[in-house]
Target: ABC transporter periplasmic binding protein, urea carboxylase region
Amino acid sequence: MKGMMVSRRACLHRLGTGVLALGVAGGPLAAATLVGCAAPATPLTIAWHPWPGYAPLQLAHSQGWWEGLPLQRLATGSASESLAQLRAGRAQAAALTLDEVLTAHASGLALRVVAVFDLSEGADVVLARPERSTPPSWRGARLGHEAGAVGTLMATAWLDAAGLQPEDVQMVHIPFDQHEAAWARDEVDVLVTFEPVATRLQQRGAVRIFDSSLLPADTAIVHVLAVHPRALDTHPAAGYALLRHIFAAQRHLHTLPVDSAYRLSPWLGLPRETVLASFRGLRLTDWADNRAWLVGAQPRLPAAAAALARVMHANAQLPSADAPVSLSAADWLPTDAPTVHLEAGA
Model:
């Protein structure tokens, strides 16, 4: 009835129907649908930094799919900056790693995981200068890494694999957006980094000596979309549209790789011909994967978070070995497999 508040599920259904009827992700019909769903006064702001796994976000935004929808991008230079934007309230959602979500929980920021972007199976790397690429040269090396959880986990894993202790090297904390500059200034001998920086540094002679495919089974690096809990209630329609766009952009990446490489090249800072290579060692997770991770009798996310929390606690990265009980939320995840392309002209 007119004037009555539409239920969350009805609102999401109306938005999805409006978007698909238009054949384009966004536009006037979707915007009108949002009005009927009591659209929030402020948009859902999503923070993300350059990382191939977040390409679906970048592709959706670059193609104008968000026009007319209460969705807004907040570009950052690193996950640490994205997390800071969440803490400051300038973003309601951010692309982060699962361990960063656990760290946020431990500090009082109870984020909820609403989607899983990818699994790193070699895309996070440890690089060395040619003269420091063999075991005899590692002792005493300057080991650069981001102070966040992934950087510490990768540094610790490499040290363990190399048979070294932290005191055997010189730890240098470097934010991700300063990795290339630190390498160029010869401030580090060994560097924990990830794509697209890894590809650019290897093109300049850096040698890969370790990567995330060699991590123990219980220390998986999982990239997720995390949101403030209140955003689940204040931005339901926008969140539902966002996840549909992510899955549609994944299809765009797979079916139109040349166009995707062209769009992603400036964002990743890579030549178009090397963009697709930066996805090596990365498994993008589709709708079915997300269902397996977030819903069902035995979703994968709680088990992965519990195992990761134990490892992080053992490495003094978390005060407790217990993962948060309420970590995931499937509120925005489509209940049915997306079968209709949201791209213009689909």
